[in-house]
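Tutorial sheet, problem 5. The two components below are modelled jointly, 705 residues in total.
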Amino acid sequence: MDDRPLTISVTLKLYASLGIHLPDHAARNEAGVAVPDGTTIWDLLDRYNVPRGSCHLVLLNGIFQPVHSRGGVRLKDGDAVAVWPPVAGG
Amino acid sequence: MGWTRKILRVNLTTGTIKTEPLNMDWAMKYLGQRGLASKYLIEEIDPKVDPLSADNKLIFATGPLTGTAASTGGRYSVITKGPLTNAIACSNSGGYWGAELKFAGWDMVIVEGKASKPVYMTIFDDVCEIHDAEPIWGTSVWKTDAWLKKQHQDPMIHVTGIGVAGENKVLYSAIVNDLHRAAGRSGVGAVMGSKNLKAIAVRGTKGVKVKDGGRFLKATATAKQVLQQNAVTGAGLPTYGTQVLMNVINEAGAMPTRNHRQVQFEGAHDISAEAMATPRKSDGKPNLLTNQACFGCTIACGRISKIDENHFTIKNKPEYWHASGGLEYEAAWALGSNTGVNDLDALTYVNFICNEQGLDPISFGATVSAAMELYDLGLITKEQTGGIELKFGSAEALVKCVELTGKAEGFGRELGLGSLRLCTKYGRPDLSMSVKGQEFPAYDGRSIQGIGLAYATSNRGACHLRGYTIASEILGIPEKTDPLETAGKPGLVKAFQDATAAVDSAGICVFTTFAWTLNDIAPQVDAACEGSWTPESMLELGERIWNMERVFNNRAGLSSKDDNLPPRLLTEAAQTGPAKGKVNGLAQMLPEYYQLRGWTADGVPTNETLSRLSV
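Model answer (structure tokens):
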């Protein structure tokens, strides 16, 4: 884990089988977390040991992020990242 | 084979029961279940028939894979002209009843006329009889099920039938089999009730023959492996059920809330799959007990739930202390987000009552939410509701409503009309979130553009199961498309609609298509049935069925003006989430959709299209 100062506050939301990776202070499948400036989605998920291969549906503020964006998009203060393994319903 | 090649035709007016051979020319063109039974219906009734008259017919139809070793091969459909929509109605159910009908040796049962007094039917292999239903008329689906098994001294009987909602012709009443599996939509239960037919009890001891047994077993085994190895059908659905969508759709800003006033619900997590699996604060036990499979299903998405015995809904009501069918996503949305209620056990209780009395929880919840908006606007008051304080978010009001609606008591009589008739009565038809009179399912068409088009063009009124573009637009199955874009959606909707019509005609569950394509399904059908069934021919089959249904609806008096959405979705922008500021772009999509379908600009299939598809 890098040692840069944790200057950005984001909300991490992990659902279904990924919920086990949430930090202890999480409630209702989400947790406010602090991360360094410049953190990408993959950086955030790696920090909480969320297996990348299980991250099927990744929404940044509700908008789907394809795999190729997850290492490039830098998170901003107040962002919400929500992640699901492969799920469906109807 | 696959088909039993036998039909049971029952005329309740005359009390006659006839056996006739399946029309194999039609079977080759329409396969089974939805497609084939729709063909029979369309050939046999006047499209303008009053759906609740004796002249309407009610068909219970299996598909060629029903009752076979194909995964999910337990489906049947109920096909009729629907009283909620005045359009063709086709409602699909799982459980065990469909397979049992096949084991008894029948592809379908066509019910005609109207009995002079309440009756039920038994089909025990080749023997079909009509019986006096006086002892069970006025009782619930659950009591009827138990009574029939006891009366006929066979616990292996499977029962489909109506509760008091169907008897009272609630316009969105369901036909429920195996206690909590339902042909839920479009009011098929009201048609059954209008015929004074309470239930059909079936016991079958025959197998289902297939054309090439060796090839069929290989094809079904291969296809089952596909389901098992797919993360959605192999793990996601059995573990979390459809309810896992609650947080997904809310996060995507597509959660219709308080009669579609909002697109996100602050209480979504409280009524989600994750919440169902979490021990309650009140008694330390989770709402969800286990999952459950329908006949032959290797997915097992069904939910079995138990309510806290001290919850206000069932305190001192031990008859509801047992486990029963739990919330699916659509029910949880309609009863919960759309009414603003976040009490999970209250929603579970209301869902129990919907099963017990035979109500479609989607249309019921959406109708209550429309009534809540009328109440909020002062257009109805406690005078109309009989004292119910019908506020958004009130679990108590929701519970009172469900206890009245099936019984058609008090304000329940008005709720039983559905949202369009209710809102029209009080001068605001625009507040009915429906298409062709049938209420929306659980996705907002402003935030997911394609599903808006799918609702508008669905042949049975607003429905997610006629073209589930959510799979692509939200879940990325088979590939991700942008839910906020209208471009490409007409083609997407058409592709989903056609493929689904084929799946619905085979006897299997549409949920298989989260893993299967027609490339997986066609080999199973081809090994089971005479003829040549390829992915291409099945897609054409689906398109043929879609056009046939459309022709019926047009002859019934529907037209392109009915391919529409409520003004709220077209003019009131979403207020939050990714779709903030957006409305549904139906006007951009509909002309292209008609063009792709080979229809005129007025939504009428051209002769060329009908000829190409041999409709």
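Marking note: The radius of gyration of chain B is 22 Å. Full credit if you identified this.
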